[in-house]
Structure formats: C-alpha cells, structure tokens
Amino acid sequence: MCSKVISPNSIIETYETLLSSAATILDEDAGNASWQPRADFYVYCILASLPWGGSELFEQVPDELERVLVGIQSYISIRRHFDDIAFSVFETDEGNSPNKKDFMEDLWERMQLLSRNGWKVKSVPKPHLSFEAQLVVGKSHRFHPVSYPPPAFTMSSSEILKGQEMHEANLKYPQRLCRLHIFPTNKAENMQPVDRFVVEEYILDVLLFFNGCRKECAFYLVSLPVSFRYEYLMAETIFSQLLLLPNPPFRPIYYTLVIIDLCKALPAAFPSVVVAAVHALFDRISNMDTECRTRLILWFSHHLSNFQFVWPWQEWANVKGLPKWAPQRVFVQEVLEREIRLSYFEKIKQSIEDAAELEGLLPPKAGPNFRYHTDESKESTEGHRLSKELVSMVRGRKTTRDIILWAEEQIVPANGAKFAVDVVSQTLLDIGSKSFTHLITVLERYGQIISKLCPDEEMQLLLMDEVSAYWKNSTQMTAIAIDRMMGYRLISNLAIVKWVFSPANVNQFHVSDRPWEILRNTVSKTYNRISDLRKEIQTLRKSIQVAKEASAKAIKELEEAKSILEIVEGQPVSSERPGRLRRLQGFADKAKEEEVTIEESLEAKQALLARGLEEGKELLRLLFKSFVDVLTERLPPVSADGDVPNLRTGDPNVTFPASDPEAATMEIDDENGADNNRFGLTLACWTRRFSLRVFTLSFGKPHSPVCADR
C-alpha cells in the first residue's frame, strides 16, 4: 500500500472484514467466545501492520482509519482479559493483578500512543519515499475480498467442551510473544513502545525464517534496519522464547547456538548483556518456574562450555552456605554437574578455583560402584564368587539360555531371586561400564537374562535400585541405563514412576534434578512411542492406497489380456501368449500379496498403538496419583470453609503435618527468596511443572483452567 500497489481503501476494507469477523466470534448469539484466540489474531494482524502504514493511511483516508480504530477500541472493551499465570516464567502474585495488561491490551495501548505521536516510527524503514514521484503516477490495485471461516457454534453448556474448544483455538492461534522483563528500565535501551514492538517483531521473524541457519540468523539479528542499539532487547526477546511455557517454538539448542554466535559477532557488546541477563535471572531464580530453571541450567552449562567454562564464580560463592534445597544453590550445583558431563571433573574443578567454597557442590567424581569388585583387602563372599563365574561365562561366549539356566539353578534356589538380580545386574552393568556403547551391547546381548529375572514391577524396582547404587556417582549414567532398559522393555514406564516416587527419591525432589531427569525421559519416551506409531500408521495407510491401486491395475491388465480371444477350430481361445499371461498373473498375485502384507502390518501397528495409548493413560493416572499422595503428606489441609492457605505470604494458619518435622522448619533464608517458600510449596511448583509437561505431551498446550484440570 505504501508503494501504491494496493489502494488504501482496499486495506481499510480488509481491516473492517477482520474486525467484523472478530466481533462475530465474540457475539453472544452468533459466535463462540471459546475461539477468542482467533479473534485476537485477526485484530493483531491489523495492529501489527499499523506501524508500517499508519502514517500513509492517516494522510490519505483519515476518516476510514479513525473508524477502524474505534472498532478496535470496541473489540478490546468486549474481549475477555487473558491472564494465564500457569505459563508465567516468574511465579509471583503479579499475575493475579487486575491492572496487568495482556498482550493485546498492551499492543493496543502502544498503537494509541503511536496515533497521538502522529504515526512516526523510527524503526520502520520507508524506502518508497525515495521513489514517491514515480510511484504516485502508478496504478493501484484492489485486494480481493477476503473471507474468513465462521466460528464453530456449539450448543453444549459443558465447561469441559468449552475448555477443549479454547484449548484447540490456542493451539491454532498461539500468542507470538510472552515478554520477559529481565533488565531494569535504567539498564535497557530507551526506545519508544512502538519501536520496541517493531524490533521484537524483527527478532521473532529472523528467528523463525532462519531457524535452520544459525550463522545467517545471527548475521541478520545484528543487522536490523534501526538506528539505535538494541542488544538488551534482543537478549530479552531470545530468552523469552527459550523460556516460553510450556514449550519454546524451536528446540532449546537453537537458541543456545544463536546466543553463542551473537557473542562472537558482537564481542564488545553482547557478552556483557548475556552476563547481565544471567545475573538478573539468577537473582530471581527462587521465583522462577521450575521448568524454566531446568532450561536455564541446560542453556547456561552449554553456553559456558563454548567459552572455556569461564565465569566469575566467586560472585556466587555464598550459595554454599544456603540450605541444600535453596533454588540458587541447586542452580549452581546442577550447572556444575552438567558442565562435568560436557567436559571432565578436573577441568571444572579448575574453573572454580577462585571460588573454592563451591567445590563442595561438585558431584562425586564419576565412576562405577561395583559391589563385587575383587580386592585382596576385602573378604570374598558368595556374591563375589558368583559374579566372577558370570564374568567367565560372558567372556566364554556362553549363550543367554545357558546363563539363565545357570542363574536359576545356581543362584535362585540357594540365595533367592532378589540376590540373583543383585549379582547379575551389578555384574552386567560392570561389564558394560566402559562406555555408552558397551552398555548398549550388554543390554542387547543379555537383556533377556534381566527380563527373565525381573518379570514384575517389584523386581524391576529392585533392578533400578541396583542401577542407582552402581552408578551412584553418575547421574548421567543412571539416567541413561534406566532409559535404555525402558527402551528394551526390561523396565516398564509404570515401574519407573513408582521408583521415582519411592521415599528415597522423593527426598531428592527439591535438592537434585536426578529423579526429574529420569521422569522426564520416561514421559517423553512414552509419548514418542505413540507419536512414532501414529506416523507409521499414517505412512502404511498411504502405502495401502498405493498397493490397492497397483493391485487393481495388475488385475485389470490380466483380465484385459484374457479377454482378447481368437477362434481356433471353432473354439474361442485366448490370443495372448501363455508366457505373458503367466507373467501378468504373477504380477497380480504379487501386488495382491503386498496389499495383504501391508494391511496386516497396519493391523499390527494399530494394535500396538491401542496398547500404547492404554499405557499412556495408566502412566498419566499413576503420575498424578503419586503427586497427590506426596503433596497430601506435606501440604497443610484446606480449611473447613474451603479456604486454601497462602503459603507465599507466611499464612499464620499454615501448619505442616507433625510427621514431617523437616518440612515445618525448612525455610529459604532472605538472601534467596523473600517469599519464605517451604518444601511443600517447592514440590507443588514441581508438580505443576510436570502436570503441564505430561498434559502437553498427551494433549497439546493447555490454556484454559478446565483443560488443565482435566
């Protein structure tokens, strides 16, 4: 429109069509308010385009533009305020403030300010002004009339169905940006609100279109067509995407690589901004959503690994004096543990030599803890003898069947099944301890032995205890071993959930990511199995269609060949050569056989999918029941009046169960959280995080309270 290709009146007509559709969606009689995200998207399209053409519209069609703005004001006044605190990065009471503006309200306020300032925007280039004399004589065209799908009207009054519709609408029309205000106003760049919005749009567009090209992405991010600096805004926008709940738009590794490349592209400016962002987020870590904490830990450890692990750790040395469950202490502890995974123990220990106090937060030096290790100083036991015998059998290339018979005859009768699991699992883990590849090889070759010894959940729980004991000094290898065992169906996902919620692991919930990592892997693998089966079924359905067409074609060619007759001695005889008929018959039989084979594969995959869905439901039920049980033991009960105690404000009526004296006394000191959180509240935060994760994996992104409750 600015270049006179499209007429201003045509743009206004499009705006009014969008506004009319948005108003219809929210109409009480003809619309469906559950689809407000679609209406918001229509109005967002109008508002987002005004910085680019508002001044031209104001000059050429001022009355029509004013009419559109009045329509937007009317829409904003009737729409429902959207404030989903379940997806706030920082868990504060600010999310409940009635004065807090949502994204659409904030954007409308920025456009009103732009209108009062005469539609002047510094961040929007206007290359058409240089060619105005040539463009003004050109012919403008009209937009084709644009039609929009009518709102899906539902007669149901069920809150669950309404919640499902709103959930579907939010999946289809997600909010593009959830701003993350990291830096104080005196530190961030001073720019007009509209300029901030435009630069955010630039950054999001570049991240979107160059998501497979990190180098080009960083190049264009540092070359935006603006005349002012925007490093702080760029950092805030990228971190807002990285920490977006429930999932970032792209894989977190993408944002990690972009930040690394930006630090290299702007060595004098951006690294200091990243340092300031980390310090600002660290100061507020006690109020940060636990899912976001984990992402921040993974990003930060990876980022440091690309810069020689250099960081002013002495500034965080005081966290060693905080309680073991304090968020800042746990953050530093988990970052160091992840760094060791990316490097080695001595290297990370050397990197914190200026903060010797933090050495106490380093995990033990990774290595196996083999219970039956041969040592002259130790007395040889029955377990040592049996373990040594098993090693000899493995080295002697004995078959799996021979080893199973040996265990059933030599160990189980005399010492019991649990002792057999102890000896066999410890020994096989030790054989596969040299590397990840060794572990995989052992599980592939001798997994049937473990499967035979651990047929039920009770024995599988014992098996995971043995894995945890063997790799007690390596969180990574514990998670890998259990994950691989689940992959080979040696351990069920339900058994893993029960093991994670065992008393020993529950006590680690708020001080370590160890149980959460295993639980994350379990939920993700369960979902991935279902997702893979759905993809395979979709592919097989397409293959069946192709096979049916090929079979029909082959049969048709055969029948046509048979139908060609000639009269020989007064009798009709096929004129085709017998060899060609046999060949066509073979093609038809083979095509039909392939069709039947694919149909059988499809039936088998559908059966596996049905089984997988049932497993997913059982996992979901067990997971939430386990959370409820753990929380019930620790959180104060709701009063008879139905009032829920406010744990954040230090409610004097809050009393923790006497059976858990530690929970009643554990309070974060003032340096690490002014809210005086307690273990129950910390666990509740983790519960919410995993509720969202499991729900998202199962059903998508929950946006309404009804969906979240389901």
From TrEMBL:
<feature type="coiled-coil region">
    <location>
        <begin position="523"/>
        <end position="564"/>
    </location>
</feature>
<feature type="domain" description="MIF4G">
    <location>
        <begin position="2"/>
        <end position="108"/>
    </location>
</feature>
<dbReference type="Pfam" id="PF02854">
    <property type="entry name" value="MIF4G"/>
</dbReference>
<keyword id="KW-0175">Coiled coil</keyword>
<protein>
    <recommendedName>
        <fullName>MIF4G domain-containing protein</fullName>
    </recommendedName>
</protein>
<feature type="domain" description="MIF4G-like type 2">
    <location>
        <begin position="378"/>
        <end position="635"/>
    </location>
</feature>
<dbReference type="InterPro" id="IPR003890">
    <property type="entry name" value="MIF4G-like_typ-3"/>
</dbReference>
<dbReference type="Pfam" id="PF09088">
    <property type="entry name" value="MIF4G_like"/>
</dbReference>
<comment type="similarity">
    <text>Belongs to the NCBP1 family.</text>
</comment>
<dbReference type="Pfam" id="PF09090">
    <property type="entry name" value="MIF4G_like_2"/>
</dbReference>
<dbReference type="GO" id="GO:0005846">
    <property type="term" value="C:nuclear cap binding complex"/>
</dbReference>
<dbReference type="GO" id="GO:0000339">
    <property type="term" value="F:RNA cap binding"/>
</dbReference>
<dbReference type="GO" id="GO:0006397">
    <property type="term" value="P:mRNA processing"/>
</dbReference>
<dbReference type="InterPro" id="IPR015172">
    <property type="entry name" value="MIF4G-like_typ-1"/>
</dbReference>
<dbReference type="GO" id="GO:0006406">
    <property type="term" value="P:mRNA export from nucleus"/>
</dbReference>
<keyword id="KW-0507">mRNA processing</keyword>
<dbReference type="GO" id="GO:0005634">
    <property type="term" value="C:nucleus"/>
</dbReference>
<dbReference type="InterPro" id="IPR016024">
    <property type="entry name" value="ARM-type_fold"/>
</dbReference>
<keyword id="KW-0508">mRNA splicing</keyword>
<dbReference type="InterPro" id="IPR027159">
    <property type="entry name" value="CBP80"/>
</dbReference>
<dbReference type="InterPro" id="IPR015174">
    <property type="entry name" value="MIF4G-like_typ-2"/>
</dbReference>
<dbReference type="GO" id="GO:0008380">
    <property type="term" value="P:RNA splicing"/>
</dbReference>
<keyword id="KW-0539">Nucleus</keyword>
<feature type="domain" description="MIF4G-like type 1">
    <location>
        <begin position="228"/>
        <end position="353"/>
    </location>
</feature>
